[in-house]
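Allow me, if you will, to draw on your knowledge of protein folds for a short while. The matter concerns a single protein, recorded as an amino acid sequence and a row of backbone structure tokens. Kindly check, if you would, that the fold set down in the tokens agrees with what the sequence suggests. You will find the record immediately after this paragraph.
***
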Amino acid sequence: MQATHPRGSSPLFLQPQTRNNHRSSGYVPGKIVPLRPVPLPKNQALAKFASAGQEAHATSTVPSEEERQQAENCRRKRHKNTFICFAMSSLSFFIVLAIVLGISSKYAPDENCPDQNYFLTHWNPGHDTAKRVLIKKGDKFLLKSDATVHSIIIQDGGQLVFADDANGSRNITLRTRYILIKDGGALHIGAEKCRYKSKATITLYGRSDNGDSVSKFGKKFIGVAAGGILELHGARKASWTLLTRTLHSSGLSSGSYSFQKNFSRGLNVRVIDQDCAQVLKVERFDTHEYQNESRRLQDFLKAQDPGRIVAIAVGDSATKNLLDETKRTIQNLLGSRLVSGLSYRQSWAFVGVIGGGNSSSSESVRDYENHSTGGKAIAEREFSTVDGEKFVVRAYSEWNNGVPRSVFQVEATDGVVLDVLNDVSSWRPGDQIVVASTDYSMFQAEEFTLLSCPECSKYQIKVQEKPQFLHMGEIVDGVDMRAEVADLTRNILIQGEMEESCYGDNMCQFFNYDTFGGHIKILKNFTSVHLSNVELKHMGQQLTGRYPVHFHLCGDVDEVGGYSAGTYVEGLAIHHSFSRCVTVHATNGLLIRDTVGYDTLGHCFFLEDGIEQRNTLFHNLGLVTKPGTLLPTDRNNKMCTTIRDKVHGSYVPVPATDCMAVSTFWIANPNNHMISNAAAGSQDTGIWYVFHKQSTGESHGLVLETKAELTPLGIFYNNRVHSNFKAGLFIDKGIKTSNASAEDPREYLCLDNNARFRPHQDADPEKPRVAARIDRLISFKNNDHGAWVRGGDVAIMNSGFADNGIGLTFASDGSFPKDEGSSQEVSESLFIGESRNYGSQGGQNKYWGTGGIENKTRTLPRNRTFPIRGFQIYDGPIRLTKSTFKNYVPTPDRFTSAIGFLMKNPWQITPKNNLSMVKFGTNISLKVFFGKPGPWFEESELDGDKNSIFHDVDGSVTEYKDTYVARMDNYLIRHPSCINVTKWNGVVCSGSYAQLYVQTWNPQNLTMTIARDEYPAKSMTLRGINQRALFQQYQPVVMLQKGYTIHWNGQAPQTTFLYLINFNKNDWIQVGLCYPPDTTFQVTSDIFQRQTSAFHSVEEYMPVFSMQGLQKTLPGRTYYFDSSTGLLFLLLRAQHSRDGFSYCSSQGCERVKIQATVRSKNVSDCMAKAYPKYSQAPTVMNPMPARTSEPCRNCGATQTVFTSDPDNTYLIVQLQLFNKTELQQGGLETFISVGGRKFAFKQEGFHLVVVDACTGLTRENIFFPQGAAERLATHLKTKILQRSIVLLGTRGNVGSFDGIAEALVSLGTAKPAYLRNNGSIAFMGFKGNFRPPWTKLFISPAGQGLGLLEKYIPLQLVEYGCQRTRALKTQDLELLKKALQTR
């Protein structure tokens, strides 16, 4: 299709001029060619006048007098007419000129707005599903109305622009099977500097089994090929934020109430707290049958406090014995007009307020006739809580087909208001939002529709639906658990048109809905692609390469690739999609920012082939990431074992090791930047760093060795992970890069345990290590792991872990000798075992039980009996320092410990694991636990289980400085002065320790027993690590300067290597290995180079003929074989120094090789002969230190709060309040604590603490004794300064509360609360022109205290009236700038 505009064919945009004609380095999206005003035509009257003048001038005949007179008259008349015409023409000219200039000044086209170009042609293709549109050179089309076509191809400079207007009133929908943009073609909806204001929708229609497929793109797509331009820029709006006030199920803090019962005769009564909507009393009075019930009702009502809400509903009948006195009581107390006239089986419903009179009540009656009342008698009234929550109380009463029914309801009404962290004034009524789960199940995420809310601030929204689950809006126990809230609606919508159910070959065995959505695919050498504030719905297909947004083999898309304006996707809302969210495939330098990916199949933010680098993911949110079918790593258990078309032979995949890795962020190369992202719920993992040894997929062969394992980590800062089933953060494993074969029948691209992250400078293992820095990770409510990190060097810092099955596990690079030794460190971090986020049932939360803290019921990770651990030691070496642990309390069902060990561990554990400056805070009853036989631990008899150990450097764990903590039954490391800690199943010992690595060849699968000469009866039996390998390996931890013997459960090995692991120079042990008496030996030593597998410094050992001879030949190079016992003795001494965390010396790994000629196949167990001959009395080489009596002042994390807005300052506030009865029990303290500073009060009365909300400094600390309520109220009203945080608490019996309820309204309560006849009150309020979401009044019932209350209050907010004391640029924005500069 081609159209020529009468005004010419000037291009809409400045066309790119590049050497390849595909992209322009100087392209500026939305830049329009400047327009010049069209020259105005000459005035026709002026032209006519000039012509007439010429004609007059040309006349030459001599006239007569009469003629002259006539001519003079005509001339005068003509002059007069000419003057009139001239004046009129001039006036018209100036009027036209004024109009033109006015119009030009008012409607001058904005050169930044693509739809305001003068040369665009209005385009209205109508609705024709057979029309194939070609927009080519010279076609500059402006779409102003709905259209339906078969397809659109835009090429050769052709352009399609969506019309807009100033007030955003347009609503344009374009339906098409596909849009292909190439060779200079362009599609524009808005521009970066001219945001689209109206509503634009592109609907991609078509079935998978219908229509042609376009090469490289498939079906149902928007495709950008080489030279194409795609610019979509919707109206700016906040993408996502965090809750700042907890959203309770039903929308009420106290929860909703619903009751329905048939045949509940008499008057059914409910009493509701007017301040919190809680049902306080549930009673039934059978006033039909018994007069005493009528009197009881009368007394009951008189006993209620003024202001209480009372709901009454008749069940069956209530009038036979309803006394007149009782009726008068109901009339006088509640204001009922109808109770006096109630008759037999008449339905009556009433809602009123004690002491409220007629104006506060609602009631209705229905007459009984023919077993029915013909409908419901309904009474309802609306109220509000002191927190401002609106609620309705309803009562129903009816007879229906002979069945009487009474119903009560208490529920939120007029919408539910949400308080959020950021300005959301850009969100609009009708928008769809999603609130993330803050529990173990991601399926507690909920969608809502926004309502109009004139009363809301810019930090509030109102939703129509009532929440089903609890969504935290607070920092809990120091960890930020505030739920993410995302807006899913944008004014530019790209959507797939879907069928009602699954069909054809679309994996319908796994999905009962249509998964063939639309997709956007961008190919290499595009000219410009920028997508911002666009909604993508029903996008993606369960086909490879068909994703909502897919950058396919694009190479460098930033300045490195010649793009002056870096490529980005920003502010996208991708939801209810069918294959991923944003796929970055062999593409580098892309910015993905402020994008939401919700409810998708397969990895959401997906870096595909292992060679994607320099990409930046900034402030993105992914949640509800479900399994898909495309890759093994996308699949769940069922998909994994069912999809077998790419395995070899009859191989059945193993889900746990081949599949089950679907992740919200799948990062296939560490050289990418992750800043301020949130992974808020995945079937498996939140963020997974996986390592490809070579490029895969369509990039296969492009990079033979990616060196991803050696590549330093990009920026990782301020990311949060929660509600994931497997792990929040996972750094481990690789991908199988070979096709299935007989040797390895597994599918190509399945998980592979062949990669270990060990970053080095320039990805060169010969250059220094570069520590991977994980800074500010928030991880909570992950079923299995908060984080699992394998490799080194890795440092995690400033991070918070809470309510995870296991908070953090470090795993080493690998078992020696593969691992050269590295460091893994966690510092300045907080671990919470069980927080005050108790969770809620439902949404696929499987486990609910009693917690260890306060015995409250809560949701649980993994299983009711699963052993919860804060920090788990696997192998090492690890370093845990400057960290705090809280709330690790076992229950009768499970062991819960702050520090634990990997269960059923066959691997090695190094004694170089060390802990220092650790703080154990409140509620820690099990610091360390080594496990014991039973559920989960099984026999606890694997090699790693037995050798579990760590070094307590400063005594902050054991109270014994420079000691080692090991399993209680490990006598290889003990001495007589060691101290047993039965509760831990552990022992604390002093000494020096290392590891002996034993590798044996021929025969395979031997079991090794090692005994220390001082404790021969307490030997340790080791199974070894590799049960099916050609060789076996063992790594017992040994105390240095001691003697050991080694025995076998079969024929002695022909070849044995002994490596000295973690031996410092001159460290030694003596080892005797069991062989048959007639064995001959060749013993040599060398230094082994791990990287090259070469060895040097070979020396041969010479035999000596006595133990004395062996010991006299220090530093060694001799052996002694005692044929009487069958023991070959060696003295193993390290000759070289060891650096840092390396397992071996700086020269290489010192080892001894024993080549034995074994003639006997008998079992080589020499224990009976070795002892007591070589037994030694136990001795203490390093005396046990004295127990530390002083608490560690600087132990634990420096910071007390770990949030996702780290540039904000939070003040921790605690109020601990008890009533008189509780205080009489003793041992309880009443206090208000501000920032760790405690203000205790010991007398009955009120305690007031006032804090400056800008500085956090205490302004007032005043005690008001019992009976001083009026004086306190006056103080609250008149003495509190602006910008003040007000903290108020009570102790014991305070007397009256006169005036206080009214005073609290000015400090944050929504109405005066009823404060009489209560136990304790606590209040957190604010004096100023802003009501923060943290303001709260706590009231306990009479006879009860409130216990400990804790709140994290933000300081220095502009909304308080504070002046900014910090730079506007936050740390994450500074890091984003750095990331973009280093791309």
The CA atoms of residues 280 and 1373 lie 50 Å apart. The first strand starts at residue 121 and ends at 123. The two ends are 42 Å apart (CA to CA). The chain has 13 helices and 88 strands.
